[in-house]
Amino acid sequence: MRHRWRTPPAESDAVFLDRLHRDRSEIVPWLASLATLEGARVLEIGCGRGASTFALAEQGAQVTGVDVNAQAMGYARSQLDRGGLDANLVELNAAHLDELACTEPFDLVIFWASLEHMVIAERLAALRHGWSRLAPGAPLVIIETPNRLWPFDSHTADLPYFHWLPDELAFHELQASPRSSIRRKHTDPATEMLDFQRLGRGMSFHEVERALGPVEVSSCLQIERRRANPIRRLAWACSSAGRTARALRSFAPDRDRAWFQPFLYLAVRRT
Predict the structure, then answer these.
(1) Across-strand partners of 212?
(2) From first to last of its 271 residues, what are the pLDDT tens digits of the chain?
């Protein structure tokens, strides 16, 4: 896919370039195995500053990007313009995807590092609305969402068992995080709880099943990478993470292995 890469955005933005490189080299090739990106109608929920949008658009996808952060989307537009690319960027809470002014179904609906920043009611509504906008047989994809079942939270608090705690307790436990940037003095916990929940709380198969009903995992990025690389597969099998995933699945052996990875990178289709 390299020959389709456009001129990268401002060289001074190292964070953007790092994400763009990761998306180009790892995520977009996986998405291309799920659906042909050339000419595909893609709904990207959580487009943010646009690295993923850039990587999709340069492959010929017709991207509609949704985000609640207007400032981030302004930056995304500037980078798309710099690369000679186009996308329809819409400021909208994903819980209100039913208000999106698009009538044609999408070939791919992607929740890109976004579900973890929604409260439960928003997750359920966003999943339902995204599902309803898919073309028949098209996949719904979840990318980079921390798994609630995993015993260590490397996404938000960098603490063990943080995902497992109820919000009320996790809110206070955040003060023990080694990440000083997210520790804060609480003056009004009632009003700060929503901000805390949006920092990034893990998700599991429970929300997907409550919102969509029975689904089938059609692909998982981590598993596909191991399948393609025997060394990677062996290293995972011997690692503490691999042992943790097997232990978690032992309590629900009927569930697909994709639901027991540290982060959710998976595609689902209707059963």
Answers:
(1) none
(2) 666 787 776 656 888 999 999 999 999 999 999 999 999 999 999 999 999 999 999 999 999 999 999 999 999 999 999 999 999 999 999 999 999 988 899 999 999 999 999 999 999 999 999 999 999 999 999 999 999 999 999 999 999 999 999 999 999 899 999 998 887 766 676 678 888 999 999 999 999 999 999 999 999 999 999 999 999 999 999 999 999 999 999 999 999 999 999 999 999 998 7
Q: Please answer whether residues 52 and 24 qualify as being in contact, where contact means their C-beta atoms are separated by less than 8 angstroms.
A: no
Q: Which domains does the chain have, with CATH numbers?
A: 2-152+201-270 (3.40.50.150), 156-199 (no CATH)
Beta carbons of 146 and 263 less than 8 angstroms apart? yes
What are the φ and ψ backbone dihedral angles of 23, each rounded to 5 degrees?
Answer: -65, -40
E strands present in 151-232: 152-153, 159-160, 215-220
Report the distance separating Cα 164 and Cα 79, nearest Å: 38
pTM of the shown model = 0.94
CB 66 within 8 A of CB 100: yes
With CA atoms as reference, report the closest residue to 64 among 82, 44, 49, 50. 44
